[in-house]
Every structure is written in structure tokens, then in C-alpha cells.
Amino acid sequence: MRRTALSQNAVPSGLPVLNRSWPFAGGGIRDIGMDGRYVDEPQAPAGPDEVIARIDAVCICSSDIKIIRMGKAHPLFADRDLADSPAVLGHEMALTIVDAGANWRDRFRPGDRLGLQPAIMVEGRRRTVGMDLPGAFAEYIRLDARVLAGEGPYVFPVPADVSAATIAMLEPYACVEAAYRPNCRTSLKSGGRLLVVEAVPGTRFDRPAPDGEVVLVGAGEAARAWAGGAASVAWHESLDAFAASEAGQASYDDIILAGRLDAEATARLANCLAKGGLMVLVGSELGHESVILDAARIHYHELSFLGSPGPSLSEAFLPARTRFELRAGGIALVLGAGGAMGRIHTHRALELKDGPATVIATSRKGARLKALEDDFAPLARQHGKTLVVIEDGEVEACVARLAPEGCDDVVVVAPEVAVIERGARLMRADGMLVLFAGMPFGQPCALPLGLVSSANARITGSTGCTVADQLAVLDRVVEGSLELSGNLEAVAGLGALPDALEAVNAGKVSGKIAIYPALLDLPVTPVRDLRQDDQPVRWSLEDEKRLFDGGISNASQG
């Protein structure tokens, strides 16, 4: 019998003594929980420095599947015995406060609705709710000062007139939003460590002088004069001398490469970039020649690449050369658009007011191609844009026809070197390559880094998001310029979580699945089977309320 659901705005008169959850102790998807079932555990009231929130909705992320697949091999669990300390996954959530400890009662009250940013900082180290800390594959979640205050806060209030499923989808949409916001440095780091390699003197060092540590290699008089006021300055006559020195083994916050330098030397120096590092290429003659880089470092380490044809250094920092947003009126290519995150990139591009005029979306799976066409072609027409949905094998021919000089923007949502290199070839000389999908470190990838200098190309990567990114998405939702429900494909109750995980793992769904923990026995159900009209909004607050109030009967399992 289906458990009675709490209405979205109701708060229980007392906190339930048990909390249902799906702990992960290793194994496969069907091993989640205990003996194929969720676990009931005693639930104490909130401590003085805690709050307890009801999980109104949680969406499944592909990273949840990745964690389950990798199990103990996942880096986050390197120092954790999952058998002794199982993890409760789930990090895309919508919450309602049900119990606040004494230290939080002036800020949080029962009935307050919240969104949450799962990537938090604890004593300078990144932690994730739903991985390191217990997550939302449960009925309730217990939060403490690490999330409520700490280096955050990492929770934020949300309006009452926005569905729980939409709030849960803020995090993945915000991760996509972050890919097009300034997500890496575009200026030299004050007080940092700077390496300047000048192959041929003649660069005009017309930026403010550095104030940290500077290492010069083969630099001319202008470079030496520019660096003279730094905290410390070291000079090496040649790259060979530099490589043999202690400085050649160090990492650098910023690296300036001035003049002609071959691809191998450029790649070797790029490996010296610290996390969050910036490389500036001035007067490079590499052109389309490939430079071998670790694409995972661009994605995870927030590496930045700027450049100018020379001789001016300051030209590399002009706004036109620090673009992050899709080009207005251009042609954007999304490689791997059929999955949930690729769909979000496609969705965003189509709804972006000053975005691309044409969006080319690719997928390897026929069912996902049809879903892209069905879900987003009407949206494209509504905004006066062109959506081209094609099979993976048709990409080159399509780009040759629609963008003979290459695409203005290429977004890669597939963790494969071959796809990234393909995307780089399909990008126009002054285009932008966005590396979104993460991959293991240490996989060499050939990228046209010289175009950053000679043609104003951009190569960017990003991972995760911030509260500010989520609020930016929420603002667009509230103002009516972004409707997230177009990417919600199915809903389910907490008891059907393994089925929902399996559906995502097997690629049976293209969009997101929202789990409603209060609806215990609701099977995985496509939202199209629950709608009673053909309105463009696929899943509204009213639909959600009717489902919670029992006004929508369970459909057959999807």
C-alpha cells in the first residue's frame, strides 16, 4: 500500500523516530541498501548545532552511477571502508526544515524550504554532501555547521511556488551554468609564482609589474626590467638550464610564453602549471599545431589559457580574449547531447536570449536523438532558433555544410580523448572549446593551443558549481526565462530507487529522474504518463501537488 505523502508545505507535528535510507556499502546497483531494501534507522532529534530536513525530492546524477560502479576504487573512498562506513549518496536535492537545534532556531524554522550546494569546504578541503557526508537517498537529512555555516553557508531559501523537482535540478543546471561563467583566472596572480619564457626578445611587457616570485628564462632586457621590482627574481639563460635547475621542477601560478616555442616545449611547460594556473601565450607561431595536454587538468584544476598575436602582453587580457559565454548568433555544437547533462547544455543554449542561432546536438543512441527532437525542437521554434539533431557519425558532414569554417562553440559532454580531439578539429579558429565531462588524469590529448595566441581561440573546462551559480539559475526560473521541467523525464518513490538507478545506468532515460522519498511505493514512471494536458511545461508544481495528494494514480513502471 502506498504510504501517505506529506503535502509540500506541511510539516509533521513530530519528527519520525525512523529514517529510511539507501546506504551504499560497495557492490553493484542492486546491492544498494540491505538485502535489496532500504534501511530503517533510529532518528534522534536535532542536536544543538544541527537541523533535520525532509527531502522533498532528489534527482539522480550520473556521478551517483559512477560512484557505485567504481565503489572502493573511487578516489573519495580511498581512505574509507565502505563495509564499515556505508555512504548515503544523492546530492541534487530539495529540502524542508522539520527540526532545528537550539543554535539555529533564530535562523531556521520548521517549514522553511531550502536548496543545497553539495560541494562544501571543510578546513580548506573539499567535501561533498552525498559522498563524504550523508546525502539525500533517504527521507531525512541531518545538517550541521559544516553546511549551515562553515566556509558557506551552503544552503539557501527557495520560493514556495517552485516545484521540489525543479529545486532538485538547480544543482546540475548550475554546473552547466558555471561552464559559461568566469570559472578560471584571467589575470596574473598577485604575490604568486610567475615563470616568463621569452624565446625571442621583443615582447612589450605592458601589464602591471609582478609582485611575487619571478623566474626568467632567456628573457631580454625589457622582461628583466619589468620583473625587477618583484619580491624575488631568478634568471636562466636557456630552457635546458632551467629544466636542470631546482626551479625547473617547481610549479607556477602563471606562465608567460613569449615568441616561438615548439609544441613539445609548450606541453612540458604547461605541466608546470599549478592548480588554478594561467598560461599566457604571446606571439606564438604554433597555429593549428597540436599541443599534448592533460585534459583532466583543464577540467578539474581550473587551468586557464590566454594569448595574443603580440608583441603586447596586455592584449591577451582584453575582454574579447577572455570569453566564457556562447557566441551570440553563432553555431554551437554539443557532442554528447543525449545524456542528462548534454541535454541541459542544449536546453540552456536554446533558451539563452543572446545565445547561438543554431545548435547542433549529437548522440550515439537513436532513442536519445528522438527525445532531443521531441523535447527541444518546439523550444527552438519558440525562440526562433535552429536545432539540428544528428547521429554521431553525421557530425563532420553536418558541420561542413552549416559551418564550413568550423563551429563558434564546441561543448564536449563525453569523457573521451577522441571526442575532445574531434571537437577541437570542428571548432573554428577563433571558437571556444568547452570541456565539461571529467575523465581520469594522465590521458594525453592533442589540442590547438597555438590558436589561443594567433586567432583568439578559447579552451575552457569546469566542474561543479557554487551557491551563486544555483541562485543565478533560480532567478531565471522565477522570472520565467528558464523552465527546468523540460529535462525531467520520470519520477519515482524512494522504494524504487534501485530501479531508477538501473534505468539511468542502462541509458533507458535521457533526462532526469526525480525521487520523491515521501511516495514510498511509486514506481519509476515517465512524467508523460502522469500529465493530463499537453501544455509545454512537462511537470508543473500543480502536477507535483496532485501526485502528493493522491490525485494521480500510479502508472505502470517505466
UniProtKB/TrEMBL annotation:
The keyword Oxidoreductase applies. Pfam families: ADH_N. InterPro entries: ADH-like_N, GroES-like_sf, NAD(P)-bd_dom_sf, Zn_alcohol_dh. It comes from the Bacteria. The keyword Oxidoreductase applies. Residues 47-148 form the Alcohol dehydrogenase-like N-terminal domain. Keywords: Oxidoreductase. Gene3D superfamilies: Medium-chain alcohol dehydrogenases, catalytic domain (3.90.180.10), NAD(P)-binding Rossmann-like Domain (3.40.50.720). This is Alcohol dehydrogenase catalytic domain-containing protein. It comes from Labrys neptuniae.
